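We treat protein structure as text, and this decision shapes the records that our systems exchange. We quote a single record here, exactly as it is kept in our systems:
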Amino acid sequence: MYDEQTSLTFQQVYNLSGKVYAYLKTNGIGREDFVLINLTRGVNPYIAIIGVWLAGAAFILTENTDPAERRKYIYNNCSCKLEINDTVWQSILKTEPLDGYENVDEHDAAYAVYTSGTTGNPKGVIHEYGNLKENYLLICFHNILLKLMKFLLIKQENLTEKLCQNPN
């Protein structure tokens, strides 16, 4: 995982997301609790998402440039238990990582997405863990199909090449 300033190995991502998980668990965050992620753009929001999912919780992602009223409305509307911002992130970094994860049900909330709210208050839509699993399976199936199509095209090109070769 990387951005313009940071490049992380899988092990580093695992350790950092384990720190988020430990911090959340220490603060009583668990299944179906909502956590507002309000971090500067880069790798940290993604690490926070993984940590929230390890805790079995759900996240709402906002931009730290969003107006404070919008963030406050979303926080209250979703009954968030915690906000991970740049200040909290510094505390998370001091936390010992926790291995493992919490079991979730496919109907547990995984994340919520809010509209811009240009015509009033932002409206939220909750997505469940089961949706993540289905989307993952669709992506895997799509990738397998692409590989199969590429393989078949290569085989077809080789066959066409052989059939069109000049026998002389």
